[in-house]
Amino acid sequence: MYITCLDLEGVLVPEIWIAFSEVSGIPELRRTTRDEPDYDKLMKWRIGILKEHGLGLNEIRATIEKIDPLPGAREFLDELRRLCQVIIISDTFTQFAAPLMEKLGQPTIFCNELVVADSGEITDFRMRTENSKLTTVKALQSIGFDTIAAGDSYNDLGMILASKAGYLFRTTDKIRADYPQLPAFEQYDEMLEAIRKQLGK
Q1: Structural domain containing residue 24
Q2: C-beta separation of 157 from 179 below 8 A
Q3: By Cβ atoms counted within 10 A, which residue in 20, 79, 132, 160 is the most buried?
Q4: Residue 121 within a domain
């Protein structure tokens, strides 16, 4: 029995921090897990920049409300959910994800949580578990599921490599070159076809 585990940002929706970087005019916030493999380091750095500029959750959520899924993402996800169970495993946060899940048809998502002061300042973050994507895939495997995984960034590689089938989707040239053994797709229909074959459907 298969479960497909998908990354969220860069795979189904645009990168939230890049969108916020453009709206806020802070180019440093364009840095994502495609650039920085150490997520803990990246988030602490982001929180420091937000504090420096007096920005918090309310400003970021105002940007998120205007973000739509990537073209074709909702249709891809709907079709994939007809083929097998799907979980989105993301390093984003519950406070960011809610409006995006509504636009994607309320799929199941496992993500993390921000610590937010009454003022809206983001003061810290809580990871659901260490190495959450890999840990989740291994937990699913431990209860009898085979996993298929897809993502675009460094923090997706653990779950992709640990799965029965794993795919890169719209990744960087560097990641593609470093992991030539992983099929890399640019279009949803290509990835859907690969998953369909893996499922024998």
Answers
A1: 16-64
A2: yes
A3: 160
A4: no
Catalogue the active-site residues.
7, 9
Report pTM. Answer: 0.91
With a CB cutoff of 8 Å and minimum separation 6, the contacts of 15 are: 9, 32
Task: Evaluate whether residue 120 is within a structural domain.
Answer: no
Per-residue pLDDT averaged across 102-113, rounded?
96
State in Å, rounded, how far the first CA of the chain is from the last one.
13
What pLDDT is attached to residue 34? 76
C-alpha–C-alpha distance, residues 189 and 94, integer Å: 29
CATH number at residue 132: 3.40.50.1000
Verify that 78 and 156 share a domain, yes or no.
Answer: yes
Q: Rounded distance, CA 46 to CA 17, Å? A: 9
Shared domain for 168 and 181, answered yes or no, is: yes
Answer yes or no: is pLDDT of 174 > 90.
yes
pLDDT in tens, 13-26: 999 999 999 999 99
Please state whether 98 falls in left (phi above 0), alpha (psi between -120 and 50) or beta: alpha
